Amino acid sequence: MDHDAYTYIAVMLDGDGAGAYIDSPHTLASIHPSLSHVGQVGALDNVQLLSVAKFDWDDHGEEVLAQLKEAPGVVRVDVQELKQRSKRDEL
């Protein structure tokens, strides 16, 4: 994943109301022209990862989030942030 070039968005789907998106998760990208489907998050079939190019995110980020949140069967939308993991102190 390239966090310098893309903003990543995790989308959690309701199993009952999001049948089309669960059956064909790549169709989530059709909600907004700036979206691209990256894939499933781990073994969670109801959580999908989408991406938006940074240059599009700057202009359309709020619009993308609003349209995702309004989509049928979408329960939660989270923008993913790159965080540095801290190491434990070695004893």
In short:
This protein is of the alpha+beta class and 91 residues long. Helix content is 24%, strand content 35%.
Describe, in plain words, how this protein is organized in 3D.
The protein is of the alpha+beta class. It is built from 2 helices and 4 strands. Strand 2 and strand 3 (44-53) form a beta hairpin. The protein is globular. The termini are far apart.
Residues in helices, as a percent range: 10-25%
From the alpha carbons, calculate the radius of gyration and give it in angstroms: 15 Å
Largest sheet: 4 strands, antiparallel
Which series of helices and strands comes N to C? Answer: EHEEHE
Overall pLDDT level: 87
Strand content: 35-45%
Content-based structural category: alpha+beta
Sequence stretches where pLDDT stays below 50 over 5 or more residues: none
Coarse morphology: globular
**How many beta strands in the DSSP annotation?**
4
Q: Which characteristics define this entry?
A:
91 residues; alpha+beta; 4 strands; 35% strand
